[in-house]
Amino acid sequence: MDSDELSGPATEHQPAEKFGTFLGVFTPSVLTILGLIMYLRFGWVVGNVGLPLTVLIVLLASSVTFITALSASALATNMRVGVGGEYYMVAHSLGLELGGAIGIPLYLCRTLSITFYSFGLAEAIVALLPAQMEGGSPRLVQLIAAITVVVITAVAGKSAGLALRLQIPIMIAVGASLIALTAGVLTQGLQAPTLIPSYRSAGGGFWYVFAVFFPAVTGFTAGIGLSGDLENPQRSIPRGTLLAVLTGTLVYLLVPILLAATVVLSPQQLADPGVGAWTAVAVLGVWLVFPGMLGAILSSAFGSALGGPRVLQALAKDGLAPRFLASLSRSGQPTIATWISGAIALIAVALGGLNAVAQFVTILFLTLYVTINLSAAAEKISGDPSFRPTINVPWFASLLGSAGAIVVMFLISPLACVIAIFLESALYLYLRRRSLQRRWGDARAGVWVSVARFALLKLRTHGRDPRNWRPHILVFVGDPDKRIGLVRLANWFNQGRGIVTASQLVVGDLTNEDFELEQWHDEMDRALDSNGLVAFSEVNVVQDFEHGVIDTVQANGIAGLQSNTVLVGWPQKPGRLEAWLRITRGLSKVGKSTLIARLNWAHEPGQEKRIDLWWGGLENNGDMMLMLAYLLSLNPEWSDARIVIRSISRSEDEMKLQKEGLQSLLQEVRIQADTEIITKPPNESIADIIRRSSANADLVFLGLQDPTVGAEAAYAERMENLTDSLNTTVFVRNAGEFAGKLV
Known about the structure:
The chain is α/β, with parallel strands linked by helices and 743 residues long. It has helices at residues 21-33, 36-40, 42-76, 86-94, 96-127, 137-158, 160-165, 167-187, 206-213, 233-261, 267-270, 276-281, 286-317, 335-349, 355-382, 395-412, 414-432, 443-462, 484-494, 517-530, 545-555, 576-589, 621-633, 652-669, 686-693, 712-723; strands at 473-476, 500-507, 536-542, 565-569, 593-598, 610-614, 642-649, 674-679, 699-703, 728-733. Strands 3-2-1-4-5-10-9-6-7-8 form a 10-stranded mixed β-sheet, with helices on both faces.
């Protein structure tokens, strides 16, 4: 009755230098949020719609990004996020095809963003030059933009650490500009803000202003894009991303209040686009505002130069781009991918004006937000046991985030939205490389046959991966009315998502005897329906009990939906428990797990308080016991149950090692449970300790070994003695692909 601990998955190669939450996630994310639009368009927004509607615009826009940040955080806390950021999370949640359909445009967006931000920086610099140089400004803007692309690419390719550390003085400059604006407003007098919209320079109305402002709140995924360079992505991504979004929201609520309340600016002046509103109000004007604005642009460019090549690196590792692009330099940087990205950005400089393309890039980023939210919603709805994020987001909240992003896409540009969706759909179909061409039967039957066939083909490929494991349980019920509790237990274990099959076994000879198989089948269905239980039912006639059980188990199911777990009740017939032990040994050889349950509820379901799990250390049973206890606790009837992992040590030193090992395991697998290590007294047996410690537990999990041939009777006797004084007890023999691979 033992189980062993698990070995964690191997870690993939990572760059030599790793970053924490502040430098690796928060800094690039918040500086990308607090970007050019904050300086150039906030006054214009307030001047056109008034302060109340400006606050509403900020809250509406920030709610979409906040929900998306929550969804991304949920995904990040449930997996070891590798290089590729958002692409990695989508590909590992919704599959490589959809991940590639998003990842390829994401790479192009980030690469072209280097060009956009370089142009923005160049135009801002040219605006500060003497007026006599205006004649050559278009060429000068292109030249400065090209130089900027080269410098940014060189820095990003040399060292991500250098690029990130350069953002510290940029953050100081942005902070100084905000302080200068606040000081300027407070020292020059206040006025009542404009409350009524005028739409002086925004003929498109409220939603037009909203669409112009929305890109200001994007960019929070800049830190997620550096996932492969983080010390602890599971911790840093949610903390840094959510903190950046909240910081950006607070700043964006403060700035319009300041601009609306200052006496320096009239509503007409506010409605003019540009940085003039800031420089007119802020202390020291251009001397503090322009460094912050230029720094924000430069920071966004650095974020794109770091994030884009890492998406390309991840695409190359997954075979969606040439393999050589995944290679790293000695310093751990994707140098080749960085220089290729820089070359694409430099070529884009020659195109000159990129305003229309910039709008298209914003739409593609929004499709990424849609997909991130859909990934989180799909994971939540599917209810996979492996989806155990430390940040739980309701599925409907993630779907709301997707809907909000889609609405914003159409508000910004319906045409660009349609083009982006068409492009990504075409990429998805191309990457999938296969589709079902024909349907047969009537229209409705053909659709369902196609869907079922497609799903079964996918399960044939993916169904045996430990990450996708869930119990598909074959329950041997004998008398359905007396054994209905077993079916209820099986439904609790799979939460109505796996397959439960109730099988009644009849010993006989079909060739010489007549059986009322249809009547027995109908009686089983009535028993299940009357108890509100969902399960498939079957009646099997076998010539020999033990061989018949093994044959039935092997034949049960179809394609990727075969039963992987057998559940039986405590037998009443003499010698039947020994028979089940022999059967268990046979089932182990064909990879089927076995649960032998002795039902003895201390009270009615709905009042359960404690689940005890005895962790041994010699088999793989502990993996399955912990997963079953976790699945049980997700049911409303067991939601208040406390899971306690108990183990027995021989000495104080062994107790300390076991406790550390269990705590480390629980942190790794993200399951809430208590641990209790008991040092064995010399005058007390292990069975006595189990009976004493678990006497009040509502359900006890114990490991089940395969007894040696001929030792079944003695083993069965020990099982009987052990469970006599316990409440419901489940013996677990884990023998499937899930053994030793708790995820």
